[in-house]
Give the backbone structure.
Amino acid sequence: MGPSTHSSNPTDPEAVRAAVKACDAAQAKYTAATSSAQRTAALREYVASAEILMAQLATDEAAPAPRTAPGGEPTHAWMITLQRPIPNGLNTLTFEGGYTAAPGTDRQRAYKEIRAQIDRQRPELAGAVLLFFSLEPYRL
């Protein structure tokens, strides 16, 4: 089982580009604003665009590929929930996947390896706070 975020739609690259353009346009409006009212309106537009962008990125199915044992099945199943601030609140993401423990691997090392893989795939999550981590034997 490959890791995934718990969402039904993969990221639409065009929607992400549109949201980035909307953020850039709102930032340009803020920079060009000559009154407090114009700056406030531009800031609200930027926050709304940033929320759309974050929602698009939160649907990203990209996560680390599982490492498997020689038999093709991971030795452990893992689940991790991370949270980070976004312009208008918090973004919480959950990933899951398979992990094959090398001989002598302890739980802390497994967590660090899994977290490093997620951080490489999703650099924007590198500073995210850990809310939940589970590592259980793959077989029941």
The chain has two domains: 13-58, 61-137. DSSP finds three helices and four strands in the chain. The mean pLDDT is 78.
